[in-house]
Design brief:
about 160 residues, DUF2384 domain-containing protein, Xre/MbcA/ParS-like_toxin-bd, 9 helices
Length: about 160
């Protein structure tokens, strides 16, 4: 994972960074085992909505569709009372990968708006794939992360 500029994240999110919304603590503070245990028990759906609340409705819907693997009705803004309160472990892992990519993209592009613009457009380096759509697969996540690291360190323009 790329080192994260916590000051940039705090300017965009306040004290609640994307990963902190899902699993409390400072970015990079948790061991892999602690993360595994949180993800195995399932991330609270309310915390996921909290992470996504800073984005516009269209982007939130796209991300939720990717994480849940099912389309969310347009008129559904929050989970219904009949919905499960926690994501399953697979959905939780994917949600955490999205949170990490959001943080990395913001660190690379400098603010949330530019990061979102990059995430939703096809990327030539990623063979025309849309970075947001790639994150739900661990290999796609790794390709996006690798590309963001290359941009951050000046390998790519």
């Amino acid at each position: 994972m790329l080192p994260i500029d916590v000051d940039v994240l705090r300017s965009e999110y306040g004290d609640r960074t994307p990963t902190n919304c899902l699993i409390p603590g400072e970015p990079g503070e948790h061991s892999c085992i602690v993360l595994y245990r949180h993800i195995r028990q399932g991330i609270n759906l309310k915390d996921l909505w909290g992470m996504l609340s800073v984005y516009d409705a269209s982007f939130r819907k796209q991300v939720m569709n990717c994480i849940l693997g099912v389309p969310i009705p347009i008129n559904q803004r929050r989970p219904s009372s009949k919905s499960p309160t926690r994501l399953n472990p697979q959905q939780s892992a994917v949600a955490y990968l999205y949170a990490e990519v959001f943080e990395q993209a913001i660190a690379v592009f400098g603010n949330r708006e530019l990061a979102v613009k990059w995430l939703v457009r096809p990327c030539r380096y990623l063979e025309g794939c849309v970075p947001l759509e790639m994150v739900c697969n661990v290999l796609g996540y790794q390709a996006v992360q690798h590309y963001l690291a290359g941009i951050r360190y000046g390998v790519y323009q």
